[in-house]
Request: fold
Amino acid sequence: MRLRRVFADLHIHIGRTKSGLPVKISAARNLTFHEIVREAAHRKGMDMIGIIDAHSPPVQEEIARGLEEGIYREDPEGGILYNGTTAILGAEIEVKEEGMGPAHLLAYFPTFASIRRFTDWLRRHMKNVRLSTQRLRRPVRELQERVAEEGGLLIPAHVFTPFKSVYGSATDRMSRLLDMDGIVAVELGLSADATMADHLYELSRVSFVTNSDAHSLGKIGREYNELLLHRPSFRELELALRRLEGRRIAANYGLNPKLGKYYRTRCIGCGAILSPKKEEPFSCPHCGDRRVVKGVSDRIAEIADGPSKSPRHRAPYLYQVPLDFIPGLGPKTLDRLLARFGTEMNVLHRVPIEEVAAVAGEAIARSIRLARERRLEIEEGGGGIYGRVRAGQSDR
Ligand SMILES: [Zn+2]
Ligand SMILES: [Zn+2]
Reply:
């Protein structure tokens, strides 16, 4: 059987319903189900997208209408088809066990019927099932069972970020929170890469996924996975994550973790980048503020089992610098680039640099070339502030 490369970003939020009801309050208003599948298909060049918040009942009504009208079609192997892009239906759920902080988990479902049954269960155990990422008032093991019963997949979200993730706020060991037999993949988050995550040996069996966690259309595809599949469907995605029948993750495309907004530890009071020691509580040596956000790099150093050991199955992790990180590249230039070269993936990875220069100018083309060569200088992010590409870099 011939396998093909499929680009997949599996974590995109819905801002509003078509009728204007909020779903993810912090996400853009134009981030509706239909606008997401359109943007993914036409501008981003994503073959597969995971639409989180598809558990929300009014979103499900929109999907049902689209299916009735023939705008979408359900794939017999799982997923919703639109113009060559396959949408995988999912939800993000906050869990909290006694004695641990909260953590976010992603659940994906094979069919429209299965996520609707999941919603019927969810609505009995959370305050407002319409909204994104609500706290579940049931034990996490019960959630794992429910997702498995529907043939779904549970993937811990952005596992190292402070505040709301398995390692960032819940526990030092994922196996204390989750039944690891049910976990086939974890999402690395924007401030970590595969080498960093492979300091934790309990992850050696699981696959790593890299997703955008987009809260606006422009951010779709800032991280994504290159999968080797027969065709883009839920069943094939599951095979790839489990590394069965030749299906697999061929590469993870992610931000250089230094661009992520939680890479370094930073003081919220004065903005200083800090290097904390293990002992807590920790206050800022410059201003005394206790509001210090521990960076992913320091958190991993704290809970590491030893040196980074990547298993043989681990896919290569390739850095990419999304176009909206390139200094001087505004919305007008972006539109011109997309009009000329089709998708952001083409501009970032494929189009010859001279052609980029002809459309966007020498300075922008040089930044994109340095990004491809992994020579772009970066100011590290932390404490909720993204890292930055230094402007005006020369070739030396
Ligand atoms: Zn999210
Ligand atoms: Zn400070």
